[in-house]
Amino acid sequence: MLTRHVRAKAMTGWIIAMVIPSLILLGTSIAVANGNSENGKALYQESCQHCHGFIGKGDGQMAEYLEPRPANLASQTTQAKSDGELKDLILKGKEGTAMVGFEGAFEEPQLNDLLVYLRSLKP
Q: 38-48 pLDDT, tens per residue?
C-alpha cells in the first residue's frame, strides 16, 4: 500500500512539474500566434532596426555608438525569454542601456505582431 501511495505522489509531482509549465507556455504562444508577422516587421523596421539591425543581430546603424551594444534579438538567450518578458522589455526598456521603453507607443495587437516577428529571428 505504501508503494502505491508513493507512486501516486510521484506522479502528481511529475504532472505539476511538467504539465503546468507546458500549459503556461502554450498560453503565451497562443497570443503570439495571433499576431501578424508582416505588421510586426514593419513596426520593427520603424522602431527597432536602427539599433538592433536588419535581422536583429544588434548591429544596426546606431549600435556602434551605444554602450552596451544593443541585444542580439536572434540569440538563444533572447529567444529563450517568455513573451511576457519580451513585452516588458519593449514596454519598460532596460536600465543601464539605450533601450528605452515604448509604453504607450504600441497597443496589444501591435505588441503581438512585433513578438511574432521577433520570434521569426531565431538563430
A: 999 999 999 99
pTM: 0.73
Judged by DSSP in three states, 4 sits in helix
Beta carbons of 25 and 83 less than 8 angstroms apart:
no
Residues in CB range of 7: below 8 A, 6 or more apart = none
Identify the CA nearest to 111 among candidates 50, 52, 36: 36
Count of CB atoms situated within 10 Å of the CB of 83: 21
CATH number, domain with residue 112: 1.10.760.10
Rg of the chain over all Cα atoms, to the nearest angstrom? 19
Q: Domain range holding 92?
A: 34-119
